[in-house]
Structure prediction request, 269 residues.
Amino acid sequence: MATRAATKVNQPHRLGFLATLRKDTWWIEPGLIAVFLTVFLGYLTISAFIDTAWEYEVGPYLTPVFEPRLAGPFDAWWFSPALLILWGPVGFRATSYYYRRAYYRSYFLSPPGCAVGDALPKYKGESRFPLVLQNLHRFFMYVALVFVPLLWIGALQGFYNSEEVIHGETVSTGIGIGLGSIILCVNAFLLMMYTFSCHSFRHFIGGGLDCFSCSAFTRTRKRLWDRVTIWNANHRFFAWASLVWIVFTDLYIRLVANGTVNDPNTWGF
Ligand code: FES
Prediction:
Protein backbone atom coordinates (compact mmCIF):
# COMPACT_ATOMS: atom_id res chain seq x y z
CA MET A 1 0.00 0.00 0.00
CA ALA A 2 2.74 2.37 1.05
CA THR A 3 4.63 1.45 -2.11
CA ARG A 4 1.64 2.27 -4.32
CA ALA A 5 1.20 5.66 -2.63
CA ALA A 6 4.90 6.43 -3.08
CA THR A 7 4.70 5.48 -6.75
CA LYS A 8 1.84 7.91 -7.26
CA VAL A 9 3.69 10.72 -5.50
CA ASN A 10 6.64 10.14 -7.82
CA GLN A 11 4.36 10.25 -10.87
CA PRO A 12 2.27 13.40 -10.43
CA HIS A 13 0.24 12.77 -13.60
CA ARG A 14 -1.29 9.78 -11.80
CA LEU A 15 -2.63 11.94 -8.96
CA GLY A 16 -5.72 14.05 -9.51
CA PHE A 17 -5.08 17.57 -10.83
CA LEU A 18 -3.42 19.63 -8.05
CA ALA A 19 -3.69 16.70 -5.60
CA THR A 20 -0.67 16.52 -3.33
CA LEU A 21 0.53 15.43 0.07
CA ARG A 22 2.73 18.51 0.31
CA LYS A 23 1.98 20.87 3.19
CA ASP A 24 4.23 23.76 2.08
CA THR A 25 3.24 26.76 -0.05
CA TRP A 26 4.52 25.09 -3.25
CA TRP A 27 2.21 27.21 -5.44
CA ILE A 28 3.95 30.52 -4.66
CA GLU A 29 6.93 29.93 -6.95
CA PRO A 30 4.98 28.90 -10.10
CA GLY A 31 2.46 31.68 -9.40
CA LEU A 32 5.13 34.37 -9.18
CA ILE A 33 6.94 33.00 -12.23
CA ALA A 34 3.69 33.16 -14.26
CA VAL A 35 3.18 36.80 -13.28
CA PHE A 36 6.76 37.93 -13.91
CA LEU A 37 7.18 36.00 -17.17
CA THR A 38 3.94 37.50 -18.47
CA VAL A 39 4.98 41.03 -17.51
CA PHE A 40 8.56 40.91 -18.82
CA LEU A 41 7.92 38.92 -22.00
CA GLY A 42 4.77 40.93 -22.69
CA TYR A 43 6.75 44.17 -22.36
CA LEU A 44 9.47 42.94 -24.75
CA THR A 45 6.90 41.78 -27.31
CA ILE A 46 5.25 45.20 -27.34
CA SER A 47 8.64 46.91 -27.45
CA ALA A 48 9.66 44.93 -30.55
CA PHE A 49 6.70 46.46 -32.42
CA ILE A 50 7.37 50.08 -31.37
CA ASP A 51 9.86 50.78 -34.11
CA THR A 52 9.92 54.53 -34.70
CA ALA A 53 13.66 55.34 -34.64
CA TRP A 54 13.35 58.29 -32.24
CA GLU A 55 11.66 55.98 -29.77
CA TYR A 56 14.33 53.29 -29.54
CA GLU A 57 17.62 55.15 -30.03
CA VAL A 58 19.12 58.38 -28.80
CA GLY A 59 22.67 59.69 -29.22
CA PRO A 60 25.00 56.70 -28.92
CA TYR A 61 22.39 54.44 -27.32
CA LEU A 62 20.33 51.85 -29.17
CA THR A 63 17.96 49.61 -27.24
CA PRO A 64 19.23 45.99 -27.25
CA VAL A 65 15.83 44.84 -28.56
CA PHE A 66 16.90 46.37 -31.92
CA GLU A 67 20.53 45.20 -31.70
CA PRO A 68 22.31 44.73 -34.10
CA ARG A 69 21.33 47.91 -35.93
CA LEU A 70 19.95 46.97 -39.35
CA ALA A 71 20.76 49.38 -42.15
CA GLY A 72 20.14 49.62 -45.88
CA PRO A 73 17.03 47.89 -47.24
CA PHE A 74 15.94 46.79 -43.76
CA ASP A 75 15.48 50.44 -42.74
CA ALA A 76 12.66 50.68 -45.24
CA TRP A 77 11.15 47.34 -44.28
CA TRP A 78 7.43 47.71 -43.69
CA PHE A 79 7.55 45.97 -40.32
CA SER A 80 9.66 46.43 -37.21
CA PRO A 81 13.27 45.42 -38.01
CA ALA A 82 13.48 43.91 -34.50
CA LEU A 83 11.35 41.03 -35.80
CA LEU A 84 14.13 40.15 -38.26
CA ILE A 85 16.55 39.75 -35.36
CA LEU A 86 14.60 38.45 -32.42
CA TRP A 87 13.75 34.95 -33.68
CA GLY A 88 17.24 33.85 -32.55
CA PRO A 89 17.19 35.11 -28.94
CA VAL A 90 13.47 34.27 -28.57
CA GLY A 91 14.01 30.71 -29.83
CA PHE A 92 17.01 30.34 -27.53
CA ARG A 93 15.03 31.45 -24.48
CA ALA A 94 11.83 29.59 -25.36
CA THR A 95 13.69 26.27 -25.64
CA SER A 96 16.00 26.86 -22.65
CA TYR A 97 16.02 24.02 -20.13
CA TYR A 98 15.40 26.48 -17.31
CA TYR A 99 12.54 28.31 -19.01
CA ARG A 100 10.92 25.03 -20.02
CA ARG A 101 10.80 24.05 -16.36
CA ALA A 102 9.38 27.48 -15.52
CA TYR A 103 6.61 27.65 -18.11
CA TYR A 104 5.68 23.96 -18.01
CA ARG A 105 4.92 24.51 -14.32
CA SER A 106 3.51 28.01 -14.39
CA TYR A 107 1.56 28.07 -17.66
CA PHE A 108 0.86 24.44 -18.54
CA LEU A 109 0.60 23.24 -14.89
CA SER A 110 2.29 20.08 -16.08
CA PRO A 111 3.12 19.46 -13.33
CA PRO A 112 2.52 22.62 -11.26
CA GLY A 113 5.17 21.46 -8.77
CA CYS A 114 7.11 18.44 -7.57
CA ALA A 115 4.71 15.71 -6.37
CA VAL A 116 1.64 17.79 -7.31
CA GLY A 117 -1.09 16.42 -9.59
CA ASP A 118 -0.60 17.18 -13.28
CA ALA A 119 -3.11 19.04 -15.47
CA LEU A 120 -2.53 16.42 -18.19
CA PRO A 121 -3.73 12.89 -17.57
CA LYS A 122 -0.77 11.28 -19.35
CA TYR A 123 2.92 12.05 -19.40
CA LYS A 124 4.22 12.17 -22.98
CA GLY A 125 7.59 13.81 -22.42
CA GLU A 126 9.16 15.79 -25.24
CA SER A 127 9.32 12.97 -27.75
CA ARG A 128 6.41 14.08 -29.96
CA PHE A 129 5.41 17.16 -31.91
CA PRO A 130 5.33 19.96 -30.90
CA LEU A 131 7.53 19.54 -27.80
CA VAL A 132 10.06 17.50 -29.74
CA LEU A 133 11.05 20.86 -31.27
CA GLN A 134 12.64 21.71 -27.91
CA ASN A 135 15.57 19.67 -29.20
CA LEU A 136 16.40 22.65 -31.42
CA HIS A 137 17.84 24.32 -28.34
CA ARG A 138 21.43 23.39 -29.16
CA PHE A 139 21.08 25.03 -32.58
CA PHE A 140 19.57 28.19 -31.09
CA MET A 141 22.59 28.19 -28.77
CA TYR A 142 24.88 28.57 -31.81
CA VAL A 143 22.77 31.53 -32.95
CA ALA A 144 22.94 33.02 -29.45
CA LEU A 145 26.73 32.80 -29.54
CA VAL A 146 26.70 35.11 -32.58
CA PHE A 147 24.71 37.66 -30.57
CA VAL A 148 27.30 37.84 -27.77
CA PRO A 149 29.87 39.90 -29.76
CA LEU A 150 27.06 41.84 -31.50
CA LEU A 151 25.68 42.94 -28.12
CA TRP A 152 29.14 43.95 -26.92
CA ILE A 153 29.75 45.96 -30.11
CA GLY A 154 26.43 47.74 -29.49
CA ALA A 155 27.38 48.38 -25.86
CA LEU A 156 30.81 49.78 -26.81
CA GLN A 157 29.18 52.02 -29.43
CA GLY A 158 27.38 53.53 -26.44
CA PHE A 159 30.67 55.31 -25.66
CA TYR A 160 30.81 57.19 -28.99
CA ASN A 161 28.27 59.85 -29.91
CA SER A 162 28.10 61.03 -33.52
CA GLU A 163 24.83 62.97 -33.25
CA GLU A 164 25.28 66.75 -33.07
CA VAL A 165 21.73 67.74 -32.23
CA ILE A 166 19.69 65.86 -29.64
CA HIS A 167 16.31 67.06 -28.33
CA GLY A 168 16.85 70.28 -30.28
CA GLU A 169 20.13 71.07 -28.45
CA THR A 170 23.61 71.07 -29.94
CA VAL A 171 25.72 68.53 -28.04
CA SER A 172 29.33 67.43 -28.18
CA THR A 173 30.34 64.42 -30.23
CA GLY A 174 33.07 61.81 -29.92
CA ILE A 175 34.12 59.49 -27.12
CA GLY A 176 32.39 59.94 -23.77
CA ILE A 177 30.45 58.10 -21.14
CA GLY A 178 26.94 58.20 -19.75
CA LEU A 179 24.75 56.17 -17.46
CA GLY A 180 23.27 54.57 -20.59
CA SER A 181 26.75 53.35 -21.67
CA ILE A 182 27.13 51.51 -18.36
CA ILE A 183 23.59 50.10 -18.47
CA LEU A 184 24.28 48.74 -21.99
CA CYS A 185 27.53 47.09 -20.81
CA VAL A 186 25.77 45.40 -17.88
CA ASN A 187 23.11 44.20 -20.33
CA ALA A 188 25.72 42.72 -22.70
CA PHE A 189 27.47 41.07 -19.75
CA LEU A 190 24.31 39.46 -18.35
CA LEU A 191 23.17 38.19 -21.76
CA MET A 192 26.67 36.82 -22.38
CA MET A 193 26.60 35.01 -19.03
CA TYR A 194 23.11 33.67 -19.74
CA THR A 195 24.51 32.17 -22.96
CA PHE A 196 27.75 30.89 -21.39
CA SER A 197 25.88 29.25 -18.49
CA CYS A 198 23.54 27.37 -20.87
CA HIS A 199 23.40 23.58 -20.47
CA SER A 200 23.92 23.09 -24.21
CA PHE A 201 26.94 25.39 -24.15
CA ARG A 202 28.39 23.32 -21.27
CA HIS A 203 27.96 20.20 -23.39
CA PHE A 204 29.47 22.01 -26.40
CA ILE A 205 32.56 22.84 -24.32
CA GLY A 206 33.18 19.56 -22.51
CA GLY A 207 30.63 17.00 -23.69
CA GLY A 208 31.13 13.92 -25.85
CA LEU A 209 34.63 13.16 -24.52
CA ASP A 210 35.65 9.76 -23.21
CA CYS A 211 38.93 11.01 -21.82
CA PHE A 212 39.68 14.41 -20.36
CA SER A 213 43.40 13.86 -19.84
CA CYS A 214 44.37 12.31 -23.17
CA SER A 215 45.74 15.40 -24.93
CA ALA A 216 46.46 19.08 -24.42
CA PHE A 217 43.20 19.84 -26.28
CA THR A 218 41.02 17.66 -24.05
CA ARG A 219 42.76 18.97 -20.91
CA THR A 220 41.99 22.53 -22.05
CA ARG A 221 38.37 21.54 -22.67
CA LYS A 222 38.23 20.06 -19.18
CA ARG A 223 39.50 23.31 -17.64
CA LEU A 224 36.95 25.33 -19.62
CA TRP A 225 34.23 22.82 -18.76
CA ASP A 226 35.01 23.22 -15.02
CA ARG A 227 34.58 26.99 -15.40
CA VAL A 228 31.35 26.69 -17.42
CA THR A 229 30.02 24.21 -14.85
CA ILE A 230 30.27 26.91 -12.17
CA TRP A 231 28.38 29.36 -14.39
CA ASN A 232 25.88 26.63 -15.27
CA ALA A 233 25.03 26.15 -11.59
CA ASN A 234 23.87 29.80 -11.63
CA HIS A 235 21.93 29.55 -14.90
CA ARG A 236 18.60 30.38 -13.27
CA PHE A 237 20.08 33.57 -11.82
CA PHE A 238 21.45 34.65 -15.23
CA ALA A 239 18.14 33.72 -16.91
CA TRP A 240 16.22 36.12 -14.66
CA ALA A 241 18.88 38.82 -14.29
CA SER A 242 19.35 39.10 -18.07
CA LEU A 243 15.58 39.17 -18.67
CA VAL A 244 14.92 41.86 -16.05
CA TRP A 245 17.91 43.91 -17.18
CA ILE A 246 17.07 43.91 -20.89
CA VAL A 247 13.59 45.20 -20.00
CA PHE A 248 15.12 47.87 -17.78
CA THR A 249 17.67 48.82 -20.49
CA ASP A 250 15.02 49.10 -23.18
CA LEU A 251 12.75 51.16 -20.93
CA TYR A 252 15.60 53.45 -19.87
CA ILE A 253 16.74 54.19 -23.43
CA ARG A 254 13.19 54.82 -24.60
CA LEU A 255 12.57 57.23 -21.69
CA VAL A 256 15.82 59.08 -22.48
CA ALA A 257 14.89 59.11 -26.18
CA ASN A 258 11.51 60.73 -25.58
CA GLY A 259 12.92 63.22 -23.07
CA THR A 260 11.20 61.82 -19.95
CA VAL A 261 14.50 60.92 -18.26
CA ASN A 262 17.76 62.87 -18.30
CA ASP A 263 20.78 60.65 -18.90
CA PRO A 264 23.83 61.95 -17.00
CA ASN A 265 26.61 61.92 -19.63
CA THR A 266 29.67 63.79 -20.87
CA TRP A 267 28.06 64.82 -24.21
CA GLY A 268 25.56 67.17 -22.60
CA PHE A 269 22.19 65.88 -23.78
S1 FES B 1 19.71 28.82 -22.35
FE1 FES B 1 18.86 27.79 -20.63
S2 FES B 1 19.57 25.78 -20.93
FE2 FES B 1 20.36 26.76 -22.67
